[in-house]
């Protein structure tokens, strides 16, 4: 494994761990997690809590998918999955902006996550 690939693997691992943490936070502290996402819903509504729980479970699964591919040593596949998954933070930024949420979070959190994911993709594929 080259140094470039190792850096890509470290970044992929950090991204995977980060999204698992974020997903768990949506399950344990949905109000805090929603604020960190950039849109603050009424978490006292049962339907809202249900959607936040769905997001949490899906975030955890997404992180685990990447982790499994890393453990399997599927470097290029991790890169391709990262590239495909970059749509998630880009869509998140769009959703936050469209919903009147924080522009700073839309670009600072979701936009920078997408940028790091693209860098990670490049390190793993080239």
TrEMBL record:
InterPro entries: DUF4267. The keyword Transmembrane applies. The chain crosses the membrane at residues 7-40, 60-83, 104-125. Keywords: Membrane, Transmembrane, Transmembrane helix. This is Membrane protein. It comes from Mycolicibacterium madagascariense.
